[in-house]
C-alpha cells in the first residue's frame, strides 16, 4: 500500500529542520477557486464552489483523514511560488498550527516548488490533488494488477517531480557558482531508487497481466454475459455489488471469485446467470498517469453486455458527476447509442419526500425504456425491478433457439454447453439430442455452421 506519510516514499520537499509537526491524520483542506483568468488546474467551471468543497472533503475522508477545516481561496492569479497569495498562506498556517494538523490537502495541481514552499511555510506535509487521488486509488485497488498499476503511476509522478526539482536545484547551484552542491547526490540516489522500483514493478506487472489475460480467455469460453457497474466515486457500486451477489460464492463461482474480487457470478430472477463486475470509482480531473491504469481495470466495462451506471442521486452534484462518468465512458470508446446502459439512481433512502418527487420528475423526462431505476443498495429498495430489467435486456439480446444435435455429434453438444446457455436438454428416441438454448448474436452463425456441417 502506498502511503503519503510513509518515510521511504521519496520526497524532494523534505528538508532538515522543517519536518511536519502536527498529527499526520489531521488535515486542513484548501480549495483554490480561480476567479480571474484561467490558470493551471484550479477551477472546474461545471462545479459549484460548494460542490468542489464537498468533493475535496470527501476525497480526504476517503482515506480516513480527519478534516479539521476547509478553506476556499479565491485566486485572481496563481502565484508561481505558492499558488495562493501571501496573506492566505499565513492565515492557513495559523489554522494548521491551531488544529495541530500534520497535512494540508490543496485541491489543485501544485508544482514541486509550490509544494515545497507551502510545506516550509506551514510546517506540514502538503499533498495536491494528483497525490491524494493516487493515494486513494492505491488503497482501493483490489486486484494485484490494479495495485501495481497505481504504484507505477505514483512512482512516475514522484520521478517527474524529482526531475523538475532537479532542474530547479541546478539553476540554484549555478547561481551560487559551485558544482556538486548538497542535494545532488541525494536526488541522484532518489532517482535511482525510484527507477529501480519502477523496473521491478514493470516486470511484476507483466507477469500479472499475462496471468490475467489467460484467465480472461478461459472466462470468455464460459458464455455468461457480463454486467458492469460504473459510477462516480462513492456512488455505492461496491454496496450494490454486494447486495446483488449475496448468498455466498457458488461452487462454480470459484473460477471468478478466486481470480478477481471484482468479478462475481450472479443469478437473475428467471435463472439467467451473469457475471457482475465492480469497477474503480471515477473522479473528475483524473490525473493523466492514472488513465492507463484505469483503462486496464475497465476492460470488463468495454466488453460488458449491460452497463449499470450507478449514481448517488442524493448528492448535490449528481448531474456534474454523471457528466464526468459519461465523458470517461466516451473516452473508453463506449457509445451510449449502441450499448445498453442503464442508469441506477442509488441512495433514494436518503431523499425526503419532496426531493424524491423532484427526482421522479427528472427521471420521467428520460425516454421510455431508458428510464433510470430508483434503488437503495442499502435497504434493497428497487433491486428486484432493476434485476428484472437487466434480465429482459440480456434476453432480448440473446436469441432463444431449439435445435437438434445428431447422436454422433458430441463435439457440437460440447460446444453448445461452452458457448450458449442451455435451458433444456431432451434425449430423443432416435438417439439425437434436442436442446433449447439462448445464444448471443455473434455466436449464432457458428452454431448454424456446426449444425449444417459447414463449420
Ligand atoms: N444511505 C445509503 N447509503 C449508501 C447506499 N449505497 C451506498 N451507500 C453508502 O455510500 C458510501 C459509498 O459506498 P460504496 O459502495 O463504497 O461506493 P463506491 O461507488 O463503491 O465507491 P468507490 O469505491 O469510491 O468507487 C458507503 O458509506 C455506503 O455505505 C444507499 O443506497 N443508501
From TrEMBL:
Stretches for region Disordered: 1-23
InterPro entries tied to this protein: G_HFLX_dom, GTP-bd, GTP-bd_M, GTPase_HflX, GTPase_HflX_N, GTPase_HflX_N_sf, HflX_C, P-loop_NTPase
Family to which the UniProt record says this protein belongs: Belongs to the TRAFAC class OBG-HflX-like GTPase superfamily. HflX GTPase family.
Name the record gives this protein: GTPase HflX
Organism phylogeny: Bacteria, Pseudomonadati, Pseudomonadota, Alphaproteobacteria, Hyphomicrobiales
Binding annotation for GTP: 231-238, 256-260, 278-281, 346-349
Gene Ontology cellular component list: cytoplasm
Pfam families noted in UniProt: GTP-bdg_M (PF16360), GTP-bdg_N (PF13167), HflX_C (PF19275), MMR_HSR1 (PF01926)
Gene: hflX
Keyword Oxidoreductase on entry: no
Location in or out of the cell: Cytoplasm
Keywords: Cytoplasm, GTP-binding, Magnesium, Metal-binding, Nucleotide-binding
Domain Hflx-type G: 225-398
Main location per the UniProt record: cytoplasm
Cofactor(s) the record lists: Mg(2+)
UniProt function note: GTPase that associates with the 50S ribosomal subunit and may have a role during protein synthesis or ribosome biogenesis.
